[in-house]
Amino acid sequence: MEEPVINEREREVALELTAHKISIREWWFKDNALLTFAFNTSSATVPEGERFIVRAVEEAKGLVSDPVLREQADILVHEELAHAKMHDAYNRYLDAQGFPATKHVQETAVLLTFFERIFTLRMRLVTCMIIEHFTATYSKQVLDIGVLEGEDTDERMDRVWSWHCIEEVEHRSTAVDLYRAIGGGYFLRVLIGAFVSLAFLIAHARCLIDFLRAKNLLFTWHVWSNGVRYLIGKRGVYYLVLKYWLFYFKPGFHPNQIPIENRFNKQLHHYHIEDELVGYFDVPVK
Fold it and tell me: Under a CB-based contact definition with an 8 Å cutoff, are residues 47 and 91 in contact?
């Protein structure tokens, strides 16, 4: 039986905003540019990253015989393609707002194409693993702390990111299990994981700087002072992502070792809403 992802009140509010052609406001997260950019810049790297994961997982699936793992790979592929479709629309919205989203989508594609050219399948699966680890730990903060909950966040964007985070948590172990199934070991996981982490940290930071620069906010004090504690404070999203990122380098690490509380009881899931979410971005930007 299909269930709604996220509660019906949130869905009804989001659909009403869209039906009345109310634009998603520029600073949709607590009316704060830095907090909004923390999510928006992530969107610029998502579509090509998801498609890279799909290609690697489909290739690896052909090398394993375990029917359960093959089914989990199919679920991941379906969900990642849905994420790519939705974030394509999200990035068009960012372009319309005057942000260089497409520039960073293309730069991500160039980087991942380079990885595909020089990396073995196991190395590409490690790349998938570290991307999935980042997104799963980021998702943990959204679901456990509820950073997007509240009247000062656009309900559509809450729904977009909560849906994405729910699905990332659901398939967070698949790339690791495939890597192990084809004989991947600890040394390669750590070496390539560290390299890819650095590459994506640089890409994310460059995108954040470009977004701030696009609105002449890079050196605006109140933008940083109002938002930085939500990012790097003790309960900040980036602080907690860093904390859990380090778990990846432990011998024997598995994503299921990091508990997901899902404190707001977001439902997991059996209800595919990507077309509905894409529709949120059809409202013209004002």
Answer: yes
pLDDT per residue of the chain (286 residues) written in tens, 0 to 9: 344 455 677 888 898 999 999 999 999 988 888 889 989 999 999 999 999 999 999 999 999 999 999 999 999 999 999 999 999 999 999 999 999 999 999 999 999 999 999 999 999 999 999 999 999 988 887 888 777 877 788 999 988 998 898 889 889 999 999 999 999 999 999 999 999 999 998 999 999 999 999 999 999 888 888 777 777 777 667 777 788 888 999 999 999 998 887 665 665 555 678 899 999 998 888 7
Tokens of 201: 């940290």
Q: Which residue, 129, 115, 241, 130, is CA-closest to 174?
A: 129
